[in-house]
Amino acid sequence: MSQINTRIVLASRPHGEPTAENFRVEQAPLPVPGPGQVLLRNRWLSLDPYMRGRMDEGPSYSPPVAIGAVMEGRTVAEVVESNHTGLADGDLVLAPAGGWQSYTVADASALDRKLDPAAGVAPSTALGVYGMPGFTAYAGLHEIGRPRAGETLVVAAASGPVGATVVQLAKMQDVRAVAIAGGQEKCRYLREELGADAVIDHRADDFAEQLRAAVPDGIDVYFENVGGKVFDAVLPLLNDFARIPVCGTIATYNRRGELPPGPDRLPALMNQILRQRLTVRGFIQRDFIKLYPQFLREMGEWLRAGRIRYREDVVEGLQNAPQALIGLLQGRNFGKLLVKLD
Ligand SMILES: NC(=O)c1ccc[n+]([C@@H]2O[C@H](COP(=O)([O-])OP(=O)(O)OC[C@H]3O[C@@H](n4cnc5c(N)ncnc54)[C@H](OP(=O)(O)O)[C@@H]3O)[C@@H](O)[C@H]2O)c1
After folding, report:
1. How many angstroms is it from 250 CA to the middle of ligand 1?
2. What is the mean pLDDT of residues 201-208?
3. For residue 281, what is the domain's CATH number?
């Protein structure tokens, strides 16, 4: 076991798109676990869109990462030293605050769960379809989207772990699923491998026209992952009583707080929400944490039975995490973005 902890800290706050200079690689001594704690060696690090928000100062649903602090992130990690009777060396765990570093110390009680590599589900999925992003899709659909058989659902960022799970859960309920993604490869995957009923590339010049043609009966559920021009194209196509779980607005993460150019469209939007009796509800997955045990049970069965499929985009080496996160915000990842630690 190395005696050095390699970690990536936030060096400065980005203005617009993050750059490599916003991050710094550091070496530190190995942390020492106290009573009830474990020393963990991180094996897989999850990279997620929310991390861009943590790099900014200002109000959010979670505090920002401080300058000089280790970047936040969930990890799948191996116990290398344990001061807790329930965990032994070699156990694999899901660590909600493992961070962008090779080792971390955690309270055993703060770990999400122990992972069983022999249970028929790959441990890395605990960071994707069988973890926070998959649960986000499950909870947002269950509690807010509430699609009914025969209705039409639209979701963007559809090849990522949230969107791809939304598409497949919708199909399991006989809902017509229209998927939006960037580029031919992602679109092909959604149509041919995940069974989306229609697929549209948001980079196409006639994107809004294609979307209109793909939803002849209008839109009953719009699972909002993106915002921006996708939301603009969706708005005129919504049916009365449509539900919009507002999960993310990744198109705006690099310019949070900025107003777009053009006239103020807020009064028209409010009027549409009223006139069409729309449900627009923002949520953070942990709002629905009561559903988590049910999610783990059901998703575990679906994954083992091959009813839910997933795709991972694996980057090798902690030092490549900054570029990978920058790429995610530009749509360069294809599937759940993970860093495999050396
Ligand atoms: N509320 C919650 O609790 C919660 C929890 C987890 C995730 N989320 C949100 O869920 C969304 C999806 O997360 P994920 O982990 O599944 O990410 P992801 O899909 O793996 O990665 C983000 C994807 O967003 C798309 N994208 C980026 N910029 C875009 C733009 N300007 N216009 C359209 N699409 C753009 C890209 O795909 P394309 O190439 O297809 O455009 C990119 O690959 C994010 O908004 C995230 O913040 C919310």
Report:
1. 5
2. 98
3. 3.40.50.720
